[in-house]
């Protein structure tokens, strides 16, 4: 999978831009606050329909303008596509080959990307919310069904929480709550099941990569910890039954707290090296190696699922990695994965690269 061309209009500090790319390594080079990350973000938004940097989509629109537009030409193994996305204060529209898409789930997944940014190094040590978001973004772009069930779940969760807050100490309509709980369990059981399947596959690749990075001196494992008690062999229906049963037991707590206390929105992902919890007891080096292994595992898992590698976005992350990890990263992508890399300097990269990169000098929202 390759992004051969990118066009921007009124996107952050880019009034108008049209770029053609190398099929291997593309480097956005420049000082801080010039627009390097904006370019990487625009590719991510084109693929995922949302930014990894902000939940306020109006921030993407250039100051003083009433819309932003991104378009890209994509070469896949068996097809060529033109993807377009426009953003206004009232919402966003997506097109595939100039045809507007009614559902985001029909659009997301046409361009697959893996993003590795400095904040991903805190994937291991950071909050559970970071890890849930990581699962949602990666699984959502390779499985439209997951995206559908997650969207339904989040919608029902908002309804249930709104009702719990509205009810307070007043009379509770238990029949209505029962309906919401059943709907929540119906979509949530699919979310839990698909997350579990995804993380089992991701762990397989992460273990292989982590073994190579560490010289097979350590063994990495991952553990999905849902708030619903499940076993690996449980079906969606079994998970739904367990979900409803536990929700019923937690009803008094939910009424008191006026929020939903369990479900996929509270689940956790844990990492272990030789059965030792990396989040709590791992060194900074172990945490960074684990994060790198997981991000590289994403590349292999996407290839396994869709039959070709995704695009890799490296947002100023090389300077955060030591020499050994830089070399392993560059060796992994060399010649087989189209990569977009932002950096303020080439000094820490030039002696490690075997591929001749296409270099774009970024100065104040313009490419020199």
Automatic annotation (TrEMBL):
Domain RecF/RecN/SMC N-terminal, residue spans: 3-365
Localization annotation: Cytoplasm
Main localization category: cytoplasm
Keyword DNA damage listed: yes
GO cellular component term of the entry, any: cytoplasm
Positions with a binding annotation for ATP: 30-37
Presence of keyword ATP-binding: yes
BP GO annotations: DNA replication; DNA synthesis involved in DNA repair; double-strand break repair; SOS response
Transmembrane segments: none
Keyword annotations: ATP-binding, Cytoplasm, DNA damage, DNA repair, DNA replication, DNA-binding, Nucleotide-binding, SOS response
InterPro entries, per database record: DNA-binding_RecF, DNA-binding_RecF_CS, P-loop_NTPase, RecF/RecN/SMC_N, RecF_2
GO molecular function per UniProt: ATP binding; single-stranded DNA binding
Pfam name, any one: SMC_N
Domain of life: Bacteria
Purpose of the protein: The RecF protein is involved in DNA metabolism; it is required for DNA replication and normal SOS inducibility. RecF binds preferentially to single-stranded, linear DNA. It also seems to bind ATP.
Entries under PANTHER family matching the protein: DNA REPLICATION AND REPAIR PROTEIN RECF
Family membership: Belongs to the RecF family.
Protein name in UniProt: DNA replication and repair protein RecF
Species assigned in the record: Vagococcus elongatus
